[in-house]
């Protein structure tokens, strides 16, 4: 197993894959769609964000997108963990923990003091986030009006 920064070609491939798992990773909130993934993640990558990938025997087992951004509320640059995904075959094997830890360490090396992650309601990855020390800070609520 190796965790490393994705190449440009791998990042494009992962964005395409992300479009195919959006519904699952958002607990049904977002529809699958490669174009949706490009619209969501390419601006982040163009602004300096990048994927870390877990790769074994030439096969991607999972990924996490990390980025930094100015947070006006906190008055500081903060890290963001986005688009974390592990293929079902590799879940419960430590891949997600290894990816998240590597991403946290990379952000820490950049001098980032606070990291945020968005976890959709009902997503079991919330347990891992809490294990890593993440705490809820807000709840996004939504009302559909017809």
Automatic annotation (TrEMBL):
| Domain N-acetyltransferase: start-end pairs | 1-146
Matching entries from InterPro entries are given as:
Acyl_CoA_acyltransferase, GNAT_dom
Gene3D superfamilies (alphabetical) = 3.40.630.30
**Which Pfam families does the entry link to?**
Acetyltransf_1
Question: Signal peptide position in this chain?
Answer: none
What top-level branch of life does the organism fall under?
Bacteria
SUPFAM superfamilies on file? Acyl-CoA N-acyltransferases (Nat) (SSF55729)
UniProt cross-references to CDD domains, sorted A to Z: NAT_SF
* Name the UniProt record assigns to this protein: GNAT family N-acetyltransferase
Q: Record the organism.
A: Mesobacillus jeotgali
Q: Lineage from the top down?
A: Bacteria, Bacillati, Bacillota, Bacilli, Bacillales
